[in-house]
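Subject: sequence -> structure tokens, single chain

Hey, anyone have a minute? Need the predicted structure for the following. Not urgent.
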Amino acid sequence: MKGTKYRVSFGGQEIFCDGTNHLELMIKDANEVTISKLDASSGMITPQKLFTNFYDKDFLYILNGEKKVGARTIQEIE
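Reply:
Had a minute. Here:
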């Protein structure tokens, strides 16, 4: 994440957001990319919402810190 731009990788999928215009969802196994126009009023979950007040009422989350997975450094969230 950098400002409003972010990239999320999980379960063979990657989500890219340029922070202003569009969101791309890439499903590697299916060799498929879906591009959506960014709509701030849609209520979509963004990293900014995830770590501010989105889950404050119903969920407890903890940032466990950085962890090495292979050659990559990730941030682990419980």
